[in-house]
Amino acid sequence: MTPIRDYMSGDHRRCDDLFAAVEQSLSQPDPALPAQLFADFCQATLAHFQAEEETLFPAFEQATGIRMGPTQMMRLEHVQMRSLMDEARQALAAGDQDDYLGAAETLLILMQQHNLKEENVLYPMCDEHLAGHAGELLPLLQKTTGSAQS
Predict the structure, then answer these.
(1) Which label site among 27, 39, 47, 128 has the fewest CB atoms less than 10 Å from its CB?
(2) DSSP 8-state assignment for residue 32
(3) Alpha carbon distance 115, 96 (integer Å)
(4) DSSP labels for 101-132?
(5) CA distances in angstroms from 5 to 11, 91, 147, listed in the order given
(6) 1 alpha carbon, distance to own chain's centre
(7) Who contacts 40 (Cβ-Cβ below 8 Å, separation ≥6)?
(8) How many other CB atoms are there within 10 angstroms of residue 9's CB atom?
(9) pLDDT in tens, the chain (150 residues)
(10) What is the pTM of this model?
């Protein structure tokens, strides 16, 4: 069975790829393409956050009794990333590529730091403490993220 770390890290890569596609599309002649690709990225990323906030984090907190530790920090960072995603979306809607690139750069840095903490600290802790529940958690995570990658 695929551990939680592997599955959720793979979903990070999927979201990262969607984000990279937005920047690549900025030079394309179709002005609607970046906004559509950014909407796809937001949908995938928000689904990832939802899977963590509604399924993974509560299960971890239940198993460990730790409620003000890494899961709380990740939730706070999700709030920051949602705000940056809104800024970037508004910039794209306004046709302001410079503002988009500024918000996107800040978002990229935050996502990279966030993902490293989850992949190297939180997810391994989840695999350790939730090993007996992975069989029921993984299908829920997959359903929420809409990704069945392994």
Answers:
(1) 27
(2) T
(3) 28
(4) HHHHHHHHHHHHHHHHHIIIIIHHHHHHHSGG
(5) 10, 34, 14
(6) 22
(7) 18, 21
(8) 15
(9) 469 999 999 999 999 999 999 999 998 888 899 999 999 999 999 999 999 999 999 999 999 998 888 999 999 999 999 999 999 999 999 989 999 999 999 999 999 999 999 999 999 999 999 999 888 999 999 999 987 654
(10) 0.93
CA–CA gap between residue 139 and residue 43 (Å, rounded): 19
CA atoms of 94 and 59, how far apart (whole Å): 40
| Strand boundaries in 3-90, DSSP class E | none
Task: Compute and round to an integer the Cα radius of gyration of the chain.
Answer: 16
Query: Which tokens sit at 14?
Result: 């999927």
AA identity, residue 37? L
Closest listed residue to residue 77, CA positions, set 117, 42, 40:
117
Asked whether 41 and 23 are in contact (CB, 8 A), the reply is no
